Amino acid sequence: MSSEKKREEAKIFPHIGILGTGAWGTALAMVASHNGPATLWGRRHNVVCAINERHINPDYLPDISLPKSLHATDKLEDLKNVSAFLVAIPAQKMRSVLNLLPDDDRPLILCAKGIEAHSGLLMSQLAAEIFPNRPIGLLSGPTFASEVARNLPTAVTLAAKEASIRYGLMERLAIPTFRPYASCDVIGADVGGAIKNVLAIACGVVAGAELGHNARAAIISRGFAEMTRLGIALGAKQETLTGLSGLGDLVLTCSSDLSRNFTFGKKLGQGYSFEEQQKIKAVTTEGVFTAPVLERLAARLKVEMPLISAICALIRGESLKSVVDAVLNRPLQDEYYAIA
Fold first, then answer.
1. Are 144 and 152 in contact (CB under 8 A)?
2. Do residues 200 and 262 touch, judged by C-beta distance below 8 A?
3. Total domains present in the chain
4. Which of 136, 167, 184 represents a domain boundary (last residue)?
């Protein structure tokens, strides 16, 4: 069936529910409110009241005026009439929120990037474990929430196995400054978003330690090779990993102080310990949780990921010099070995 025919058969999603009143959930709610009703759910009553009464999110996007049509709530029963969910909950809290939802056939589009630390499950695998018969998709790509909220041009991957869902939501969420591209490769979109967080820490380390632009470019390109190897081992399509949710997100996150993972790595490179940063940081750095899980997963699948292992060593407290020396003194090899 042609993509044009599939788009003709796309489902209609009149009312979108967004879970999570953080910066990303709020930005997505702003996008969703352009083409129809959108309801934003969160647990923090003060944030919900501020969104409804003052049309701002004082904790995460204090300088952004929110649409007056956007409604927020802290009551899940207020979402009974939504037709699909965008779930913008941090990866380590995803399970607790999904367990609150009724088990029905409304699509869950997961908008978090990471791996659950204690189970080792990707976000789509976690959701499928809780809701084995429910449509599950991913929205991922090179996105900073503050830029989406300011209506700066953004492109994302919207992945779902069901063509009617991915094309329906693609049409529902598309606005002039927010362009979704449809994909059927949910695992590929999931893998790219999880691995790039750890590689962003590595690039931050390079920046903090002043190891140079050459080193950062090497981290991005060799890190992408690691992402590709693991992704293919997990069943991802290589073309997905070269797209927005893989390489695109990797380049963005490895290049900007707006990335929490990059800034965490930068502090590591400047000599701050993992423990020191944990004491002062109030926001989640997903790459810290993801790195050791990826290292174990790579070992189980016999996939070589030396950069991921290097970040794990730094988090464990090994010296920067010893970790860099270990990476640079690995045996020489062909550039394109064992990618596929």
1. no
2. yes
3. 2
4. 184
Is 23 labeled as ligand-binding? yes
Asked if residue 290 belongs to a known ligand binding site, the reply is no
Is 221 annotated as contributing to ligand binding?
Answer: no
Helices and strands (DSSP H and E) totals, the chain? 16, 8
Give the predicted TM-score (pTM) of the model: 0.94
233 class by beta-carbon count within 10 Å (0-12 exposed, 13-18 middle, 19+ buried): middle
CATH number of the CATH domain containing 132 = 3.40.50.720
Q: For every one of its 340 residues, what pLDDT tens digit does the chain have, with 9 covering 90 and above?
A: 455 555 667 999 999 999 999 999 999 999 999 999 999 999 999 999 999 999 999 999 999 999 999 999 999 999 999 999 999 999 999 999 999 999 999 999 999 999 999 999 999 999 999 999 999 999 999 999 999 999 999 999 999 999 999 999 999 999 999 999 999 999 999 999 999 999 999 999 999 999 999 999 999 999 999 999 999 999 999 999 999 999 999 999 999 999 999 999 999 999 988 788 777 655 668 899 999 999 999 999 999 999 999 999 999 999 999 999 999 999 999 987 555 4
Residues marked active site are found at 196
Domain, as residue range, for 89:
3-184
113 is in an annotated binding site: yes
The Cβ of residue 7 has, within 10 Å, a number of other Cβ atoms equal to 16
